[in-house]
Amino acid sequence: MRMKSKNSKFLASVCVSSALLVSATYPSITAVAAEVTSAKTAALSVEKANIINNKKGETDTITVSELKKGDIVRVYEASKGGEAIATSEAVAEGKVEVTITKKDLLKATGGTVYVSVQSENELESTRTAMKYESEVTVAPAVDTVKVLNNKAGDEDAITVSELAPGDIVKIYDASTGGNLKATSAAVAEGKKEATITG
After folding, report:
1. 8 lies in a domain?
2. How do the residues of the chain divide into helix, strand and coil, expressed in percent and rounded to 5?
3. Distance between CA atoms of residues 137 and 169, nearest Å
């Protein structure tokens, strides 16, 4: 019975010693978390970005300004999740902007991209929704436009060829601004030209 008593005291002593050892060896988990948690980079404002949606087959560009050294910009198709469809190089020393260029990066019909920024030693920001316009259609070549100017009382006709289904032709009375004089119907599937009469 005495032996049992000694063992009990010994075990109790070991337990106490172990508890002290753990406490002395490992710092507070809360303290460690505070040391490694990084700040989240502030989200971009829409006015800091300039988006140019060029015609199909050409390079689209997204320029983001008011940045600082080391910032990295990412472009996504969704507000959350998914992989970045484009990523910038880190902003160089002495620079305040980055330009992302990529062939057909943006949709021809226009839409929205979601852009984030990540500063050095910080977490990536939330994504900012940025709308962009549809591509600017290439002006028709002179030799694809035929104008038939008939005598007074007869209808005149303007025919534009080498078009694509869905294209719409508009006639103006000035090179910029001016008044819209006539509009064609959309080019039908399988067709390549539109004719406006009037």
Report:
1. no
2. 20, 30, 50
3. 11
Residue 186 makes CB contacts below 8 A (sequence gap 6+) with 165, 166, 167, 168
Segment 15-34 shows an average pLDDT of 46
Tokens describing residue 15: 């337990």
The pLDDT tens digits of the residues spanning 129-158 come to: 999 999 878 889 999 999 999 888 888 999
Same domain? 67 vs 105: yes
Question: What is the residue whose two structure tokens read 């920024």?
Answer: 117
Give the 3-state secondary structure of residue 171. strand
- 119 membership: H or E segment, kind and range: none
- Is residue 24 domain-resident? no
Overall number of domains in the chain = 2
Phi, psi of 182 (to 5 degrees): -160, 155
The CATH number of residue 112's host domain is 2.60.40.10
The domain of 160 spans: 142-197
Same domain, 123 and 179: no
Q: Can you give the pTM of this predicted structure? A: 0.59
What is the distance between the alpha carbons of residues 135 and 53, in angstroms, rounded to a whole number? Answer: 5
Please give the helix or strand (H or E) that residue 16 lies within, else none: helix 2-25
The residue assigned the tokens 């009990």 is 8
- Closest Cα to residue 197, out of 152, 147, 151? 147
Helix or strand run (H / E) with residue 20: helix 2-25
